[in-house]
Each structure stands twice: as C-alpha cells, then as structure tokens.
Fold these 3 entries.
Entry 1:
Amino acid sequence: MHLQLDGRGPLHAQLTRALKTAVFAGRVSQGARLPATRQLARELGVSRNTVLAAYEQLRAEGFVDGRVGSGSYVTPPVQAPRPLHAVEAPLPAQSQFARRARVVHDHLRIPGRGIPGVRWAFQYGVPLTNPALTSAWARELAHAAAYTSPNYPASQGLPALREAVCDYLARRRGVQAEPQDVVIVDGTQQAVALTARVLLDPGDEVVLEEPHYNAMREALQIHGAQVRTVDVDRHGLQVDALPARGPKLICVTPSHQFPSGAVLSLSRRLQLLEYARQHGSWILEDDYDGEFRYDARPLAALRSLDDGDRVIYVGTFSKAMFPSLRLGYLVVPAGLRGDFVNAKWQDDFGSCGIQQAALARFIAEGGFERHLRRTWKTLKERRAALLEGLQRCSRGRLQVEDSQAGMHLVVWLQDCDAAQGEAFIARARSHGLGLYPISPYYLSPPDRAGLLLGYCGLSVAQINDAMTAFGACLDEFLDER
Amino acid sequence: MHLQLDGRGPLHAQLTRALKTAVFAGRVSQGARLPATRQLARELGVSRNTVLAAYEQLRAEGFVDGRVGSGSYVTPPVQAPRPLHAVEAPLPAQSQFARRARVVHDHLRIPGRGIPGVRWAFQYGVPLTNPALTSAWARELAHAAAYTSPNYPASQGLPALREAVCDYLARRRGVQAEPQDVVIVDGTQQAVALTARVLLDPGDEVVLEEPHYNAMREALQIHGAQVRTVDVDRHGLQVDALPARGPKLICVTPSHQFPSGAVLSLSRRLQLLEYARQHGSWILEDDYDGEFRYDARPLAALRSLDDGDRVIYVGTFSKAMFPSLRLGYLVVPAGLRGDFVNAKWQDDFGSCGIQQAALARFIAEGGFERHLRRTWKTLKERRAALLEGLQRCSRGRLQVEDSQAGMHLVVWLQDCDAAQGEAFIARARSHGLGLYPISPYYLSPPDRAGLLLGYCGLSVAQINDAMTAFGACLDEFLDER
C-alpha cells in the first residue's frame, strides 16, 4: 500500500491523515481490510505503536471497524469528499452588514498606517515609547495574573476598574459618574460599535463633525446610519447649523476637536445639550485625548454639563497608555445602561479580566497619573519643537491651526490645492518625511492642501531635524511652481 | 459668597465645581465680577493659588472673561442647565437590536452563574484552578509586555499567534489551515457575533442543535436570525431531519455535542457537508472542548473533512486556558476572509497585543500543551470519580448520557418530570449541592428532569463527598414521592 506522509506533526498523525486520504481516494476500498499493523510498520519503517495509534484514531473517528487482533476494516459507506478547492476570490457579500462594510471600509485611510522607508514619520496614533511604562505595566500584569479570578469577568467590567475610572473622571474630567454608569470596553471603536447597535437602525440619521475621525464614521455607516456632517470652526461644531429635524445621534469631540483642534465653546456646549434635549437626539462625546492640554488644566467634559442624561461619554486608554492595550470605557445614561451591558455581553461576554485588574490597580495606586504627567511633559516639549520648526520654515506659506491639546497639529499649505498637497507629500517622502493628508477625515474634503502631523512618535531632536528637511522640501516644492 | 465644597479630589477642582454651580444657580449673575482672589481665599480659608487655579480653569472653559489683576467677569450668556434627573427606569429600546436583546437575553440562564452558599457547585464553565498555569501565565505576560509592540495590533491577529494556532490545529485537531485563514477573536461569543454580522440579515434562517449552547442562540437571535432546532441523538445532529430548504447557517458541535455529549458520526459528518454544499448553507463548527477526550485521541474536526469550504471553525482558549482570558479564533473560508477581518476591525480594531503575544509564545514553546496534558489528566480523574459516584447512588434511578469528552456530564432522573427536576435541585441545595438544570439549553425543553453537572471546579475528594450528599438527597427525594 502506498502512503505519502506529509511530514507535519507527529508520525501517528501523519499516518492517520495518509490513511484517510487513501480511503477517500478509493485506494483502499470500503469493507477492505487494512494491512496488519506489524506489516505496515515494517513497510513504512515506523514503530508498530505508531501504526496502532493511527488505527485507533481511525476507529475513534469511524473510518474503520473491528478490534486490534482481528483486523481493521474500512467502514462502509465512506463517501469521498470532493477535492478541496479553496476559493480565494471573495464571495458575494452574505449580509447587508458585510455589503456595507465592503463599500465603506477603506483601510488605506485609517490613521496609524506606517509609511515604509521614511526617516521621520509624522504618524498619528502611534504611542509615545516609554520604557518606564513598559516595565511598570509588565509588573502590573504579572501581579494581576496572580490574583485575578480566572472566571468569566463581569460583562460591565471589573468593579475595581469602574471605580478607578469614576475617580479619575471626577478629578480630571469634571464628570460625576458612579461605577454603575460605566461600561468597560475594548477601546473607542468598540464603544462606537456598541452605541450603533444600541441606538441605531439602518437608515437612522447621525451627525458627525466635518472633519471627523474616519474610523468612527465607518463604524456608524456599516451599521446602516445615514451620516451627514456639520462644519467645525474655531469654536468647534457649528451648533446653529444642526438640522431642523433632530438626528438620532450627534458625535462630537468637544475637548479637542478631531482633527481640527478646536475647543467647543461653553455657549455652544449648552446650546448643543439644549438641542439634544428638545429634539430627542443622543450625543456621543468622544473624549479621546482630553487629558493632554498644554495651556491650562484639561477642560471639563461635555458630560459634566449634561442635565438631560443625553450624553454617552467615551474615554480610551489607547492614547493615555498605548493602543495595543485595547481598553476604554463608556459612561452611559441610566435608562440605556441595561442595553449597553447586554450588547457588550452579546459581543464578547466582557473584556479580559487580568488586563482590567492590572489597569485598575495602576490607576488606583497613582502610577497612571504619574505616567500621564511624564507623557504630558514630553508631549509639550515635542509640540513646542514642532510649532517652532513650522514657524521657522513657514515664512507665511503655512497656516497652523490653533490647538492647545493632543498629540497632533493640523497645518495648511497656503494657496495650494489638494492635488498640490498630494504632490508635496510625495516630494516630502524623497526628503525622508512621512506626511499624512487631512483629506481622509472629511466626508467632502476641501480643495486645500492640509496635513495632519502627529508628533508622538518623534523625539525633539528628530522633530528638529525633520523640520529642517520640511523647510528644504517646502522651498524646493514652492520654487518649482 | 456662599460656596459649598464637595470634598472630592483636589481643592482647586472642588472650588471650580462650586463656582460653576453658583453661576448656574444664578447666585452669581452674568456679567458680575467674581470676588478678588485674595478675598475669596481668605473667606474660604484656602491658599490664593487654589483660587487662582480655579479662576484659570473657569476662564479656559469659557465661564469667565478677563485677566488676572483686572478682575474676572462671568461670561454672558451662560444658560443654566436644568437639574440632572438621572432616569433610572429603562427607556424604550432605541433600536431593533436593543429590542431583540431585551426579549432574548436571559442572564439567569447563562452557564457559569454561581449559586451562593452551596458547598459543592457543579457549575459548568468554571476553570480548573491551576497554580502552575497562573505562574506560567504571569511570566508570559510580563515577558510579552516587554517586547510586544504598543501599536495597534493587526485586526486579524498577531501573525505569531495565528501560526501557533495553525500548528496546534494540524497536530491536535486534524485541521490544515494557513495563518491567513485564521482570525483571532475575543472568545467564542465574539466569533459567533462576527459570524452573525458577516452572514446574516434579520429574518435569515439558522439551524441549531437541540439541545444547544444558549448563549450562541441568543447571539444569533439578537442579530435577527430565525432559529429552528434539529434534534440530537447519540450520533449527534440528525442530519436527515434538516429542512428541505437549506438554512443560511447550521451551528454544530461535532466533536462533543453541547450539552448532550454525543459525537457526530463520520457518515453524518459527510452527509452534513454534502447538504451544506447542495443547499448553499454555511456551517459553524464550535469545537469548544475538542481537546479533552478521554477514550482516544481527540477526533479530527469537521473542518478537516470540508471539501467545499463551507465550514467556519471556532476554537476557544476559555476551556483550555481560562475564561477571563477572552481569546479564541476562527478559521474562515477564503472567500469570506476579508469580511471577517473587516468585521473584527469594525468591532474593536483587533484583540489585545500583549495577550496575543504571550499566548503565541506559550503555545510555540510547548507550555500550552504541557498544561493541556496536566488538565486532561486531572479532568479524567474527576470525571471518573463523578461517574463512579453517580453509579454508586443510581440504583437504576439515574441515566447518565454517554460522553467521552469534555468537562461536564448530563444526567437524567428516571421517571421524573421537569417540575420534579426543579424540586430536586431545590432540595439538593439544602444538602449543600449546587446543581444546574439542562432545560436552558433547549428551545423546547423536554418534560424530563435533566441535570448538567460540570466537574471542573471540584477536586476528586470534593466530588466523592458531593456524591454521598447527592445519594442521600436522591433517596430522601424519591422516598417522599
């Protein structure tokens, strides 16, 4: 009997597979007796135990009948499966969700994509590399692994983490919340997905700021939301321009508009809350980097002014800690709490217990805020270096958006259209610069050359060097026009 | 000016909140000048720096105008928000998803709920407590934290973990998969939710085994699936009884039917694959505890026979490791790969990087399979003790379902109806026994008294003691009839 062993894994498993293939290929017919174990072992040059193990396995899986000693017979009827044709081409979309996802998702335009081969990447979303955090976090994880229950965690999140979040929110974000109002999630993206499932049916209207975070738009559109945008000016969302008929949901970034950097003014905040109350709209407040404000203490969150319990507040540890952590939280209105906890349960039963426990302790024992202060200091220096560098090479040719917070700056090239912006980015690459256009963050991008410069991944020295290259590139590019 | 500090957090934050409250309450009118900082500091008995910090914060948030020195004036118009009425009662469901979730979800019937105050809980889903695993995992996490990229992980999962999974599947589950076929998820529940979103529109038909895992049913129903069930006998799903018109999806547990314990026979496996091919149905293979088989090596998975690429294979580390880990994986047909990766991206961008890296190394370096062997040995002993105990006290009054795998056994009380079963469970509680009915795992429960006994959380000695109590309870209960 000819058997071809494939060399993957232990011998008995290889032999089992080879025998199955022989049966399916008809090389051993149904009802036929398999070779005696000793004989096959000799033929193949393997131990008899290997053959015995393979026969035993075939017997357990129903391929052969009989007992060791009296011979093993191939069980009838074993219908040969057709040969496997792995279909590599995508099939037609199988659901409306999948159909929308194929249309909407644009993985090339997602923040955080690296540009290979550049020396200085002004990539947004990369974390600040911090060896002190790495070792602190390793310690916290090891500690949490030792004492955290291995059982299913509470879907709403570990009570200790929800308490730590509430305490943090009260002190740093002006938000008064109780642990029962908090749902721990796997980052902002899951918070948005849960919000979409709890609040939206296909066809429901959602207002986004223009510009906005494109991954949030995608998550809403994939749930069938009809997205419309309302422009942002230097005081944030133009609340006056909200539609006469209230949308189901309004998504805002009041502390630090993404990506423009504007802060939603107090009067607009109150106006927005009043609009939501009158029109029965929900507000999703994405407080993605409210911690990092450089001119004053962080502004209190919109949620802290919410009287009608219309605001769903989203916080993330992707910026304050690092993105691969995948932890964040929602503060939800009491009347929707059950729906959010249920939706989280349906999605994944709850977030990883050990990570939650480690983070709870890191916050409660002060390590988290010490880390925030260090990060804040470092980011402030990098931001100053970038601003200074931009001023140095601007000579009236750049317009830097005023922004007192975060981890990025928006810069416009004066008198350049979007196509010239793309050309500038391409040129910059040859100077070793990885630059990112602002256009993905618009539903209808303006015909201007805008850049989103993330400064989290570069040191002050690197930023200084990069800005020298930036200036040279700008001179070269504009001279040629 | 009367200001009430609330004692939460730093003084300047308390003062900021108190001043806002005073403004909103109209106690400081719009356009009015706030007290001089020195004066207020004296009045309140706080340092002038505290008052300065609070005024600075109010200025940053737009509550006051003016500069230090020239006085701070309350900005007009500050519209007072209405007092916060937290609505504790649930609001009407806001989406079809939330509406279905409210109807379908029954958190009382979810496996793994503890019964307080019992001595021996035969709870399903609790992990085997294992100090060796705890310390090994703490080491792996600390190591992974030190070398894993803090950046967003790949949505599909870390390549190292996908490779380790493929290697494991080839050796232990007979499944030939490439890393590109694997999607790392946060456990079986997320795998099912993703499958529902990728494959199902509301109204689509799904066939479940009867009995089945109720959390899977919920996840499908909440996505709007029309669930029908097909009975299971001792050879697994009765494939002959599948509907003439093919459903969109068929969910099966071929290696070890949950909860009955049956193994799907080879001929039915081939018949099921042929049915799926002919009717264009997808098959979700939930291989939730295929690793733990006590009479022979684990059976090869259904996916290993799949010729038409119709099987979506789900594996989890909740059983093999522990549930709070929240990691599992899908092996998906090539033609749906993009949709699954996209759906995972939309849900949460990807699973936690450090955990994935730790698990990849734990599998690749052999720690995982060493742990499996130890667990297998322990579970085998516990299972034997439970079987022996049941036989001892049965005297023809119990029917134990034949099952050669897993972490639980199904037992029927002969000649007892479902109501008597509930009464027996209540009685058993007074004997210190935490027992669980099988009824939640049926869409239409039979009128018989069935128990699902999980033996993972009890030692052999505990099981022996528990079985003595079980026998006494059984005698007492049946004598009274």
Entry 2:
Amino acid sequence: MIEDMSNFPSALEKLVEQFASLPGVGGKSAQRMAFYILRLSDNEAKAFADAIIQAKKQVHRCSVCQNLTDRAVCPICSGSKRDVSVICVVSDPKDVAAMERSREYNGHYHVLHGVISPMNHVGPDDIAIKELLKRVNGGEVREVIMATNPDTEGEATAMYISRLIKPLGVKVTRIAYGIPVGSNLEFADEATLFRALEGRREM
Amino acid sequence: MIEDMSNFPSALEKLVEQFASLPGVGGKSAQRMAFYILRLSDNEAKAFADAIIQAKKQVHRCSVCQNLTDRAVCPICSGSKRDVSVICVVSDPKDVAAMERSREYNGHYHVLHGVISPMNHVGPDDIAIKELLKRVNGGEVREVIMATNPDTEGEATAMYISRLIKPLGVKVTRIAYGIPVGSNLEFADEATLFRALEGRREM
C-alpha cells in the first residue's frame, strides 16, 4: 500500500510511486528511498538516474548464450579457455553468477530467461529454447547439463528440453539434488553447488 | 553486503550498487531491483530515471515552514483557511503528512529537518531553528506546539527550542504522551495523534 502522499509535492509523489513499483518495496520503504534521493547532491542523483538509463541502454542478451552482457558476445562465450563441448542450462542470469562463484565449472552456459509455466502462460516458445537447440545442432556440444531450479517448473522444463536434445545424440544430465529441494539455485552456497555438479546424472 | 557481480556487465553492476546504496536495501534486493529495471520498457525505465531528476529539481524547502514543496511557499503556508497563530514544530516532512492525516490540526507547521544530536554531530545551527525563531519574532504567533518525536533527542530538541521561545512571551506546548514513548511519530495512527494534540501541556 502506498501511503497517503497528498501533502507532498507531485514530483516527490511520483518518485515514491516509482520506488514502490520495485519488487519487495512497500509504501513506507518507498517513501524512505525517495527522501534519501532528495538528500543526495545533484550529481549523485544524476548518477543514480544515469545508472538506470545506461543499464537499459548497454545491457542486452549475448547472441550465443543469452546471458546479459554489454558486448555482442559475452566474455564467457568469447573466452578461449572454456570447454565448448559442455553447456550448462540455467533459467536466469543470476544463476550463471551463482555457478561461476562455485569456480568448479569450466564449460559454457545457456540462459533460458524463465521456465515453462502453463499457470503463468509461459510456454516453450517464450523462453530461449530454440537458441539452445541451434547451438546443440552446431555439432560441437557433447553434453548439456540441465541446471534449472529443482522445483516443479524447473524439473518440467529440464524434462521438456532433455526430450528435444537426446534424439540429437547429445548427452543430457541433470545437476544432482545436492541443492535442497524447493529452494532456489541463486541462494545455494559454493560447496552445495560443487556437490550438485559432481553428482549429476544422465537423464 | 553486495553480491559478487563480476560476471555481470559493468552497467548492471553500477545499477545494483546504486540500489544497494538506498536505505534498507541489501545486495540480493538490489540485484532483484536492477533486473526488474532491465525488464521494463525503455519508456518505463526513462520515466523512473526522470522521476529522480525531477524530484531533485522541483522539490525544495518552503521558504516559510521549511516543509518540502515544489512552490516558493507551500500550500499550507499560503492557504488562508489555517490558523497562523499556532505553529506545530516537527523534525521531518513525513511528520507533517502524519499530522495532516489526523485531520485534527488547523494551524501551521515548522519542519526542523532533524533533531539536535551531539552523538551525530548535529547542533542547533544544523536544523531549521533560526527560521522558526524568525517566524515567532514576527508577532502573529500565539502558541508553538513542539511535536518532535518522544525520544531522547526529540525531547532535548523540544526543551532547547522552548527555552529560546518562552522569553519571547509565546506559549510553548508539548504534544502529550499519547504516542508510545520510544516509537516514531511517523507510524502513529490518527486516534493517537488526536489524543496527543488534545492532551498537550505547557512547557
């Protein structure tokens, strides 16, 4: 709920509304954030606004793995030291960051940007599956590791993709249930992610 | 703590840092907010950035009561229907909004923008006390209601100001302890604020 702002100038009201639209931000927090902005110097406030504009302008999907990047091809895809024969499929850019923190994985990634979810009207064509199939069809890929979250939709998405890839003669594995079932890949610690990678099994 | 963002493009990193600088926002929340911005349309993101710039540009202190406004003199100070002989002194613009919600007060306000706090190096000259004294010296004021928060610093500030104003022959009152001691004026409900105004006593 947004607090009654009728006693504040409209420019302040609008800023509070913008902050209140952010995920996990209520009316009181949005008000506190807006007052914080007013206490910044003009330059600091401009830097904040610029950060929004620049992130929107510069950040887009890597043309290969679909992870977020400010280049045409992201550093992981363009790096020569990584194993091109393995692709780890995740649902979210945050999951790539989580996997990289484990320092145990040296292959490539593919970011789906979501999971198949009929409840939320997200079908196979709404996430980056066809881009993955194109890469797998390229011939260099030996193994695809499905690292979607171990929840219902993540499982179903992994299953759906594995059925498309296995006929192409490519090995499809699923990260092991080292990750607590029902939790979120993003919040897993390095050790758990390592065990999950080690214990992966063929689908 | 800000999450390791080394695998994200720098424009995204910068945006996460900006959100993480907001009060009450941790690393994970800042990341979620930044990703939310990336999912906005270009126009929506621009509107967010503009809201920051415009709030900074348009919102400033009322030349009379020091409350935040986008005019030279705020609507309360320029309104003819309000009792100019009473000034309610609060520490924060949010407190004016809280008092107005109670709909029981028809006088004017004065916003100090802080309280005297030696621990935080805030002295009497760092808050809008001299602007208040100027108004009281103007001759129209009959009563000053001290409505700073009922905590140590709010009490000390009320006491300090009352000692400056009483010699001028103006009545100084303190809102009653209807508000639970140690809590925050901003979170008080209308009924409590009403009782606090009614039960005010001379200082």
Entry 3:
Amino acid sequence: MKEPSTASSTAPEQAGLDILTQLTWNADGLIPAVAQQHDTGEVLMMAWMNRESLLETLRSQRVCYWSRSRRQLWRKGETSGQIQKLVELRIDCDGDTLLLQVDQTGPACHTGRRSCFYRALREDGLEEISAPLIDPARLYPQ
Amino acid sequence: MKEPSTASSTAPEQAGLDILTQLTWNADGLIPAVAQQHDTGEVLMMAWMNRESLLETLRSQRVCYWSRSRRQLWRKGETSGQIQKLVELRIDCDGDTLLLQVDQTGPACHTGRRSCFYRALREDGLEEISAPLIDPARLYPQ
C-alpha cells in the first residue's frame, strides 16, 4: 500500500492517517464498518475495511470497503452505480468498529433492496420485511 | 453448550434454533451484532454473539452478547442496569451479521454515553459529539 506523504496530504487525509493509529484492526488487518443512511437512520449494511480502503474512502468521500471474498478494494457502487457518499465517519469507544453516516443512492443490497437487513425473525421463522427497489438483474447486467 | 430440547421449546426458541443453521459464524463461532434503538434509529453499539448468547437473547428477550475478552456470556446491563430489551432481530442478505432492534435503558456505552459511536472524524482529528448521560463511576460502582 502506498500512503500519501504527509507533506502533500490534505487535512482530511492527514486526519485519516492519524486515525489509522487509533483504530484496533483484527488479525487480518480489518475493521467492521456499519453504514447508516445519515438522514433516515436506516442501517443499510455491514462490511469490512482495511487501511487502504479507509484512506480511499476519506480521499474520495465515497465509501470503499475491502472485499474479503475477492481480496480487493470494493468501491461501493462501482458496478451497480449505487454509490455511498460519505457524510461522516464515527468510531466507537474502543476503536474497533466504524459507523459510516452515508448518503446511499438507491439500494445498498445486492438483492436490490434498500438495506441488507431485510429479514426479521418471527415466531415461525424469518420473514422478508422489505421488497427490492430494483430488479438485481438491472443492477448487475451480464 | 446445553441447548433446550426441541420438544419443550417455545415458538421463539424453536425459531431461534432454526436460525442458527442459517447464519454464517466466523472461525471463532461468532457473528457481529449491531444494536439500534428501535424508535429513534440511533446505532448504539456493535458486539459479538455466539450460538449460546443468541439463544439466551431469544429466550430472555434481553440482549446477551459474548464477551471476547472475558470469554463468557455478557448479559448487557447485568452490572450497570442499562439493559437492552430485544424488539426485533434482523439478519442481513448473506446471514453473517445481525441487526438488533432494541429498547435501551439509559446509556449503551460503558463511558456513560447513549451510543458507543460518540467520536466523529473532523478535518483536524476526532471530535466528541455526545456527552455522558451518567458518570461511568455510577454505572460500575467498586
């Protein structure tokens, strides 16, 4: 990973470099990040970041995760167009979880739903509590 | 872990046993759980559950996590009195994260703040965006 030099960093990037040292990363160098729509409070998804994806997020002000399955940066919305603009980054008391206040374009979920948390446990099992906004086939054309 | 027998389970417990098989647990047998105040939308905290703590949560309808540091069940509020009543349990699209809709008594954070996410990144570093509701010395008397 090539980090921007301190001399040429903008203030948000410098703050990002500073925060790297205050976070607790797991054994794989990752930290969980919860994305919440900044104005409605909807919890949209949870994914993971490494240092590089966090710096990329702060640089671009668009949320970039680390894809554990693909082992590469995951610029949210790069394929689907459903981007997450970063509104504010918060950290928890022990510095091992991020809360991203975002402005989500359309659905956050690959199923086309606004939120990935679209199933709730009822007495007789899981129930779908929201429907797709967009057919997922339109989000990820072949 | 002693699981309740199917024959004597209530409906929520049976649904809980069923859900165990639909979740993706990490290598340590844990799953991250995000707690959100059900009516205001505040994201309060993120912690971890194992199978036993999830079943205990469903049985008691009060949130019980797994403490990774103490390696034991962590019945939220057992010491401080600041309990989390479970309102609804949601799971995400790939079944590897829980979203708990809760009714939190007082502060969720051990610092006495309502939410653990009380620091936001600004251009010049982290800023505290909320103050303690209660002196933490009163939450955890010696």
